[in-house]
Amino acid sequence: MKYQQILNTIQSDLATTPYAGKVATYIPELAKISPKKLGMHLYCINSGHYSFGDNDERFSIQSISKVFGLTLAMSLLNDELFKRVDVEPSGNAFNSLIQLEYENGIPRNPFINAGALVISDVLISTLKNPKKSFLEFIHDITGNTSIAINQEVFNSEKECSFRNAALLNLMKSFGNIKNEIEEVLDFYIYQCAIEMSCKELATAFMIYANGGKKLSNGQQIISSQKTKRINAVMQTCGFYDEAGEFSFRVGLPGKSGVGGGIAAIHPEQYAVTVWSPPLNPKGNSELGMYALERLTTLTGFSIF
Amino acid sequence: MKYQQILNTIQSDLATTPYAGKVATYIPELAKISPKKLGMHLYCINSGHYSFGDNDERFSIQSISKVFGLTLAMSLLNDELFKRVDVEPSGNAFNSLIQLEYENGIPRNPFINAGALVISDVLISTLKNPKKSFLEFIHDITGNTSIAINQEVFNSEKECSFRNAALLNLMKSFGNIKNEIEEVLDFYIYQCAIEMSCKELATAFMIYANGGKKLSNGQQIISSQKTKRINAVMQTCGFYDEAGEFSFRVGLPGKSGVGGGIAAIHPEQYAVTVWSPPLNPKGNSELGMYALERLTTLTGFSIF
Amino acid sequence: MKYQQILNTIQSDLATTPYAGKVATYIPELAKISPKKLGMHLYCINSGHYSFGDNDERFSIQSISKVFGLTLAMSLLNDELFKRVDVEPSGNAFNSLIQLEYENGIPRNPFINAGALVISDVLISTLKNPKKSFLEFIHDITGNTSIAINQEVFNSEKECSFRNAALLNLMKSFGNIKNEIEEVLDFYIYQCAIEMSCKELATAFMIYANGGKKLSNGQQIISSQKTKRINAVMQTCGFYDEAGEFSFRVGLPGKSGVGGGIAAIHPEQYAVTVWSPPLNPKGNSELGMYALERLTTLTGFSIF
Amino acid sequence: MKYQQILNTIQSDLATTPYAGKVATYIPELAKISPKKLGMHLYCINSGHYSFGDNDERFSIQSISKVFGLTLAMSLLNDELFKRVDVEPSGNAFNSLIQLEYENGIPRNPFINAGALVISDVLISTLKNPKKSFLEFIHDITGNTSIAINQEVFNSEKECSFRNAALLNLMKSFGNIKNEIEEVLDFYIYQCAIEMSCKELATAFMIYANGGKKLSNGQQIISSQKTKRINAVMQTCGFYDEAGEFSFRVGLPGKSGVGGGIAAIHPEQYAVTVWSPPLNPKGNSELGMYALERLTTLTGFSIF
């Protein structure tokens, strides 16, 4: 089957797939998004773009931004980064304080909230204008300078970030946050509030499929070695408490967000993104997970 | 660099690498093994065998046997198996009762002790003579019928298996063990007490690199789809509380044992095993981890 | 109000008090008891016996036996006993393995199952015939040699003791159980299977109200100092995860059992027992808790 | 022995008792206090005041203030208060977030930090000027209007309160904090920064020994019934993770603070306070615990 045929098949499948998931409501602004939104975009190294549905409509990337934050931090720092955040999968929900307390304020990995907050703290310490640099990084890897944050989502999330403030305070009590709590929280929420379409996200994620280089011009954004390590972290930690299930059923490194987006890659093959707002109980896009499982089944290969 | 050259380089490196690890002592019989033992074996799909050191000497495979147990169970059963054991990485040590109690007796994955005990229980319910079938399975995939258990290790482990008996009793209280506790424990310890050399283990693991087929004769031992799933579980759960670190540094699916062995694969490329008894604090072979990190660095590719 | 009037008032109150609790079912033999059973017995140092309802009918004392086990162990040993079991309240359910694992096999207190199992282990190591001595101890403090175990309850509990076997195996892995697991389990279940009436239990508990002496003949069963310590443990640990609530509402040291019995004392005043099988979600007799709250309200004094 | 003789004996004992404890250092201002400070004050209902050492020197009452906060809240509110904070002992350290997360933001009891923060939040919602009312309450029960906070301790604690801010944010995420986090934190630290001498504290605690009434004029500060309940909470929860040990060895309701103070009472008999800054590993005054154990041994009675 050709790629566009496969995507058409998935689109048909999804049209009749019942779902039990609910759109995220803990950020009021996100709760307004229609649960019917559905888009998918496949960007192949050798054969270009395939897509269906709302693949050109922007949505809140939320936790998918954590991959960009980690990439930026790893491009600026070496192994010292991993003294402040580990790379182990977490056996608890994405915002749990429990493991963090037992492990003395060192987050399990950069993709749970605690870990992403440490990465934000590192970027604030390293960059002169972290918000500007972060957005420029995304403009650079997508070649699209119109990508920006959604101010309403940003404001909305700011008002209900007590859990993240608790994480920051706990880590600061262990000495693992160096900057002001308000500043770290502000920068973290800024990243989450960025909006991108499936197509733009697939273009951005192409660097992870392409050994750290932009496909458009071959520019090395991050070393091949570090790219592999980011991919490994996506594989083991990219889906909250469902990373094993995603590896088991889909077999690709990827990252999900509570906006309903998922971005994944097959090294040296393609980047793929899907968007469907209803989330399963673990906080991942229910139809998105299914769409990617269908993709690797129909293409016949996962990375394993 | 050619493969034998790479292995020679690793052998030289290891000769001068200091280590802090200790040989496992909780099974008295294992404590007798010399910490100096060191062997590595690489078996490539296209170019055959490469090795150094004690690669032909048999050692106690211990938890590496859990991969064979899972394979056998998945070859006999379908998705119903995963109602009794999950496939998520575990954020705690390999024999912890804590997560098991919170999660109502359903082990996090088949590679922590609790999960392997459930797999043993399943095999006892399914097979007429589970010990015989298990050994025959290994004879089949290695083509070597002399592989057997070490009776002293078996006896030694039997006398100090209170933790595993606690896990079994706890799971039985939740209804997730169907057979007699003594019988499950006996079969589980039997599997751990099997002895194989690096070469034999690499040959056995070739089925995971080769889409579920024996390389020698093309016989399909387990479906390609199920092989991918086993590899995914090895990737996310194969190294106790260090699975993320192994993915991050090595980037291959694999499984370690407290006997000091590690077996790993690169899909469609090779199976590789290493044996060095001293264990790091997480219970994985210290030099073994390092040897495999060197291998993927020197060959220039992980699966990511 | 005189004591008998107070008890009559409580009896009237209970007759119209709705309850949501359920009779314990995890021991099949206990599940057969009528939820309507209800008895109360008050034994005052200065004025003798008061009672109502089924106060003369024997029931399974279950965990109330833990007080007798602790008393016997403390009468035989001094502070070395408390190296093997602590005296702190437990923030988890009565049979939880979690805290035990974090605290290296030292149970939080002698009234959670793990602690009572350690006490049983201690008694087996110290006494020639622990079952006989245990029963004789109860015969001695009650002056009633007809008290015995219920063999059906004993058999019934033996068949569903996987949780306790898990606790024993876990503690044995930490070196905190010295005897054979089967033997400790057997003796522990024996103690739980003893049957006594409210009147007999109140007579037995009189020693805790009377400075360690039998009221009938002034014989010192256990020193006054140790009696105070046992009472302190009852106060802080006697009601599983509801010890604080009981102190808060009732204000007396006491101990409950899943058979629906509660025994409590007011030092230098009285011993009181109540029996009503339906248990609240924390595992304590629902109407029993209420009856004792009414008692201290109507008499106008708790120990505080 | 007469009371003053008993206190003299304790003073002699303490002079030669070695201690391993350290003065609290997490609040820099407290770290400056001499570890040699030592005072004790016994205030008997029937026979007045007895004391030795630094009993007239003021020190930071810290967590002992939680008893006053609870008393004030219980005098203003009824059982609805206990929907927001439980009365169960806590099996973890005094500032742990873990239990709080598992129990959905409802603190285990009013004497762990989380619980005292909820009480502070309640008082802010109820009182027009909570700081003023709190201080006036202490002025009232001691008859001493010169009692005030230590501004340096207040400032010092404000700068290192990340743990408490984490607790507040976590509870606010569960909806169990109604006011601004900064305001609650400020009021909570204010209470902790109050300074009182042993004599003043013993006078204040006399209301708990005297059924809720001031001994000087018989004024009912809080009902007899509520006084008993406060005493019960002190008994089961007053000493962090050592409440059981204190009950076991001392047998009195009481409360300790990291300033090295302990206040305890014997209902209808006396209030007693002791001050010695070095803390044991559980955070309670090491010599203070010992002094109170000697007191109940030498007087021959605990409440049990």
Automatic annotation (TrEMBL), chains A, B, C, D:
EC number: 3.5.1.2
Catalytic activity entry: L-glutamine + H2O = L-glutamate + NH4(+)
Pfam families per UniProt: Glutaminase (PF04960)
Transmembrane found in the keyword field: no
Record's keyword terms, sorted: Acetylation, Hydrolase
Listed InterPro entries: Beta-lactam/transpept-like, Glutaminase
UniProt entry tagged with the keyword Translocase: no
Binding-site residues, substrate: 63, 113, 157, 164, 188, 240, 258
Oligomeric form and interacting partners: Homotetramer.
Protein family membership: Belongs to the glutaminase family.
Protein name: Glutaminase
Annotated source species: Aquimarina celericrescens
